[in-house]
Write a structure and sequence with these properties.
Layout: H1 2-17, H2 22-43, H3 50-63, H4 68-104, H5 108-123, H6 143-168, H7 172-187, H8 196-200, H9 206-235, H10 240-263, H11 271-282, H12 287-306
């Protein structure tokens, strides 16, 4: 078990350095910490619902470790007893920054709840013996949304529920948070690259391929956002401009993520690109420079597979 966590540490360190000096890796780690603290401070400005939003965000990241094939592999390697210990430790490591900040803000009951759910998520198996196919509103062509929606459908129940609560308690900011959570979820659909064959099979130029990807992403993400936008638009018509601005920014981030993905293709998007995305989240005007930068890199990468 110790060897497993040593391996995870070495893999994380390698991703941070990304072939560069370890100093760069440590600098990126420091940036990640500063971004996390800054976003946490920003979120807790809305004191009434901040801890519950915080818990939802932390559980979202913890749920990423619950992928069935990954956990089946861990069970085969460690056996049931050590598997549970590994999963509990993994979940607690992910939850630790959130727990520390909640304690710092004196939300002790919420901290206890988060730790309890974190442990339970490691102990309870969500795998079922019945083969349930979750229908999606998307065709098979844009596989990112078909696969992504089936892996994260529960997030949309949460976001739509938050929107209803926002209208009920007259909290527009909570509704905006729900909208941003949808875009954050959709951005995760583009973190993993597809097989080279699925790019090569398109009889398109690199530019047209990227345009088709972007069009699909914008249309389908708008479909997922429409219930939130319609409900908030009806009850907060005076804030329609803010909603449209959030929609515009969300689509710009989505475009940047797609271009960043294919600028690294066929490799996974590296940590440096992820950090650029995070910086763009904090400072949106950077998107104006990053979109053409990643677009140029993407076209050059895709020429190897489409021309």
């Amino acid at each position: 078990m110790n060897e497993y966590f040593k391996l995870q540490y070495l893999m994380t360190k390698r991703k941070l350095s990304d072939g560069s000096s370890l100093i760069v890796g440590y600098f990126l780690a420091l940036v990640i910490v500063l971004v996390f603290v800054s976003l946490s401070i920003w979120l807790f400005r809305y004191k009434t619902y901040a801890p519950y939003m915080y818990i939802l965000v932390s559980l979202y990241f913890i749920s990423r470790l619950s992928e069935i094939k990954r956990n089946d592999f861990l069970k085969i390697h460690f056996g049931n007893s050590r598997y549970r210990k590994v999963r509990i430790i993994e979940n607690l490591i992910i939850a630790l920054p959130f727990v520390i900040f909640l304690i710092y803000k004196h939300y002790f009951y919420q901290t206890f709840f988060l730790v309890l759910i974190t442990v339970l998520m490691a102990l309870i198996s969500f795998k079922t013996t019945c083969h349930l196919t979750i229908p999606t509103p998307f065709s098979k062509k844009p596989f990112e949304f078909t696969v992504g929606f089936r892996n994260s459908f529960f997030v949309f129940f949460i976001t739509y529920g938050l929107t209803i609560i926002a209208v009920t308690v007259d909290n527009f900011n909570l509704g905006v948070f729900a909208l941003l959570l949808i875009f954050l979820t959709v951005l995760g659909y583009y973190l993993k690259p597809e097989n080279e064959y699925f790019v090569w099979s398109h009889s398109l130029t690199p530019s047209k391929f990227l345009i088709e990807k972007i069009k699909t992403a914008i249309v389908f993400s708008s479909c997922l956002c429409s219930p939130v936008l319609i409900l908030l638009g009806i009850f907060y018509f005076e804030n329609l401009g803010i909603l449209l601005l959030c929609l515009l920014l969300g689509n710009m981030y989505l475009v940047t993520m797609i271009l960043a993905k294919y600028s690294a293709f066929p490799n996974e998007i590296d940590l440096a690109r992820v950090m650029i995305m995070v910086i763009c989240l904090i400072f949106p005007p950077m998107l104006i420079a990053m979109i053409p930068f990643f677009a140029n890199r993407s076209v050059n990468k895709l020429k190897l597979f489409l021309e």
